[in-house]
Design goal:
The complex is a heterodimer of chains A (302) and B (426). Chain A is built from eleven helices and four strands, in the order ααααβββααααβααα. Chain A is mostly helical and 302 residues long. In chain A, the strands form two sheets. A two-stranded antiparallel sheet of chain A has the order 1-4. In chain A, strands 2-3 form a two-stranded antiparallel sheet. The termini of chain A are far apart. Chain B starts with a helix and ends in a 31-residue tail after the last helix. By secondary structure, chain B is mainly α. In chain B, strands 1-2 form a two-stranded antiparallel ribbon. Chain B folds into two domains: 65 residues, no CATH class; 336 residues, ABC transporter involved in vitamin B12 uptake, BtuC. In chain B, α4 packs antiparallel against α13, α5 crosses α6 and α5 packs parallel to α7. The radius of gyration of chain B is 25 Å and the shape is globular. Classes of the chains: A mainly alpha (302), B mainly alpha (426). The interface between A and B is large, with 71 and 63 residues.
């Protein structure tokens, strides 16, 4: 029981991070119908910016201020990365045949990974635990169930970001424009929405969320390298598909499910095969439930 | 003149964005990774150089756009490349056949030739799935791995030789192609791509973690080299070896040349089978499937069988190539079968023009040959590869030989060139 509770806590924390990345996939897929393969690497760039900012500010400011600075700077810079990636690699290919943007995205992913590797080295980067301690929830025969401050901070920050994001999408003119472009880009353009600008904003918002996820990942694990984006990206994409691609609540739900599956699989089956479990779920969901949990049915047009 | 001012302004804005993007990564450098003891140093010179380069590059692109040649020229260029293909292809074939015989060609070039031809073969194999049948496969490396590990395990446990294993590897890989292809029959486009990627990763992870069977991350060592009618290419010489039978001095070049001709033969076999299949109902069905799946189904083509045969035959050639890879290296480990390999092969197919056999050869020479020659730039190799993928896609979204012409068509065959893409054709 205690063990299960601990895995539940770990799974929810991890799931929150996946959910944040999954939103970026789902938004981009919803609007321009492509898998933004480089999204996982934007997440990695975000984590690296986090390390750099935290290192630069170490000893200068207090820990909460430093974390806040890391989050804001990382989100801002990754938004710029997302914007630039879309402008350079995807926009010229809009309306091109369907393989072209995917190959370009794969190229962008390889480019970002190696850019970080070459500029910052291939070493793993570790930071100390900045928010140590936590509260003990349960003690069962010596097995201590802990909810660390760190995990709470991750969940709280994620929920706050999600609340802000939900407000943005549902209540602001930009959010309306994004939803309109997602439903019918041509009609939205006819009604005076600048679709190019809306798509740029979508990339920027998705990348900023990925950056927040990157900093959270950095805090949670304490260790990152230039290759974390690949795995996290595929898992987040799985989350987006599981929740129903194009659906924003679905992305978060899918992220939580993937996090829980990963935590419980590691806890009760084998750690070595936890990624195999996630990838198998991706395949199974797509085969039997291609629209995911909260997705819409797509009509096949001739 | 105002045009120039505008260009300068635009370039300055791009350079400013570049300054922000590169700032933390090129301008700063993290020091040694001691837990909690990271240090930062600054590199203003590098940052300034990168920003200046971005400014210059942007300026050059803008100037090029102002003086861009008329679009007819690209179409003409494409047509002339296609026409000259008739001469380039036999020329390349003769060069490939004669390369080891030319005196003075160093072993390293033969080795590079073997490497390029392995990728040409993989490209031709994947081309059946992606270029002909239009099924986007991001996990092709799985079949390469199946071929390599089949040979490694059969030779390690049962002492089978290369030539005994080669057909078995192909059959096993084809079986895996059907096995993995069956569940994804209903999926299309990007979804298919991501599931095949997942399958590729699953196979790699299973190979890595099933230590008892595969040796895990340490791989399998001591895989035998191929023999010629039972004659080995051992450096020891003497009876039972190639050099001993011919009564000549054994040299490393003999084995290398033999490997070279094996892969050349396998690659040409792949090409020949593809070209023959394109003339038969199956190949025609693949092309129809690529052009329009719904029309294909309406005309009574069995989609399941058509897709599965494409997966199986593509996978079979991947298996052959994997078997060759194992015998060439003498060693297999999961590190050789990462997603990057799949991406490389797919990039070769797409850059080659998805469907063009000659285009794939040219793409493989560029994507494999050029980085291999830039050995001194080892750490920048993948960086350049990534940049090249993006740039080539943006400049020529349909690849080097950018035509896609069905083998048969009613009336005038429609050639789709890169210029027409923005108009929504194809």
């Amino acid at each position: 029981m205690a063990y299960a509770l601990q895995q539940l806590i770990n799974g929810i924390t991890l799931g929150m991070i996946y959910g944040l990345i999954a939103i970026g996939y789902t938004m981009v897929y919803g609007i321009i119908g492509m898998i933004n393969f480089a999204h996982g690497d934007v997440f990695m760039v975000g984590a690296f910016v986090g390390v750099i900012v935290l290192t630069a500010l170490a000893g200068v400011t207090s820990v909460p201020l430093g974390l806040l600075a890391a989050l804001i700077l990382s989100a801002a810079l990754c938004a710029l990365y997302g914007f630039s990636i879309e402008r350079v690699a995807y926009r010229p290919l809009r309306g091109s045949f369907r393989l072209a943007p995917l190959i370009s995205a794969i190229g962008m992913s390889i480019l970002l990974e190696n850019y970080v590797q070459v500029s910052q080295g291939a070493l793993e980067r570790a930071i100390p635990n900045l928010i140590p301690g936590g509260i003990t929830l349960m003690n069962e025969n010596g097995f201590i169930v802990q909810l660390t401050w760190m995990q709470m901070a991750i969940v709280v920050v994620t929920l706050a970001v999600l609340a802000a994001f939900t407000y943005l999408v549902t209540k602001t003119p930009l959010g309306r424009a994004m939803r309109a472009v997602e439903q019918d880009a041509k009609m939205a353009a006819l009604l005076g929405i600048d679709t190019n600008r809306t798509i740029s904003y979508t990339f920027m918002i998705g990348s900023a969320l990925a950056a927040v996820a990157g900093v959270m990942f950095l805090l949670y694990y304490g260790v990152i390298d230039f290759y974390i984006g690949f795995n996290a990206g595929i898992k987040a994409f799985t989350a987006a598909v599981l929740g129903g691609i194009g659906s924003l609540p679905g992305a978060v739900l899918g992220g939580l499910l993937i996090g829980l599956i990963e935590a419980f699989w590691s806890g009760y089956a084998t750690v070595a095969y936890k990624d195999v479990a996630v990838y198998s779920i991706l395949a199974i969901v797509l085969m039997f439930m291609p629209t995911g949990l909260l997705g819409r049915n797509e009509v096949e047009k001739v | 003149m105002s045009n120039l001012t505008q260009n300068l302004k635009d370039s300055a804005a791009v350079a400013f964005v570049a300054l922000l993007l590169f700032g933390p990564f090129l301008g700063l450098q993290l020091g040694d990774s001691n837990v909690g003891n990271l240090t930062l140093s600054t590199r203003p010179g590098l940052l300034a150089a990168a920003v200046a380069f971005t400014f210059a590059a942007r300026m050059a692109i803008l100037l090029w756009h102002d003086h861009k040649p008329a679009p007819q020229r690209t179409a003409k260029l494409t047509a002339s490349v296609v026409r000259s293909g008739r001469f380039i292809a036999p020329g390349l074939l003769i060069l490939a056949l004669a390369l080891p015989l030319i005196p003075g060609v160093e072993n390293s070039y033969i080795d590079l030739g073997v490497l390029i031809m392995t990728y040409v073969m993989l490209g031709w194999g994947l081309n059946i799935v992606v270029g002909l049948a239009g099924l986007l496969d991001l996990g092709y490396v799985a079949f390469y791995a199946v071929g390599a590990y089949s040979f490694a395990l059969l030779s390690e446990n049962y002492g089978w030789s290369f030539w005994e294993c080669l057909p078995v590897c192909g059959i096993l890989a084809a079986a895996w192609g059907i096995f993995l292809g069956f569940p994804v029959l209903r999926l299309r486009g990007d979804y298919l791509a991501i599931v095949t990627l997942a399958f590729g990763e699953i196979i790699r992870l299973v190979i890595t973690n099933w230590v008892a069977l595969t040796g895990g991350p340490n791989g399998i060592d001591g895989i035998p080299h191929p023999t010629l009618f039972g004659l080995s290419f051992s450096m020891a010489g003497g009876p039972g070896t190639f050099a001993g039978a011919l009564n000549i001095m054994p040299t490393p070049a003999q084995r290398l040349d033999y490997l070279y001709y094996i892969i050349l033969f396998l690659a040409l076999l792949t090409n020949w089978v593809t070209l023959r299949l394109r003339k038969q109902p199956l190949g025609r069905a693949w092309e129809a499937l690529r052009e329009d799946e719904i029309a294909c189904r309406s005309l009574g083509i069995n989609l399941r069988n058509t897709k599965l045969t494409a997966f199986a035959i593509g996978a079979m050639f991947g298996g052959f190539a994997g078997c060759f890879f194992a015998t060439r290296e003498g060693f297999v480990s999961p590190d050789s079968f990462t997603f990057i390999e799949s991406a490389t092969v797919l990039a070769i197919v797409v850059l080659g023009g998805a469907g063009s056999q000659l285009g794939i050869v040219m793409a493989a020479m560029v994507m494999i040959g050029v980085p291999a020659l830039l050995q001194s730039l080892q750490i920048y190799r993948m960086l350049i590869f990534g940049i090249a993928l993006v740039v080539i896609m943006v400049v020529r979204p349909r690849g080097f030989i950018s035509t896609r012409k069905p083998t048969v068509s009613l009336g005038k065959a429609k050639i789709i060139t890169a210029d027409m893409i923005s108009e929504g054709h194809g």
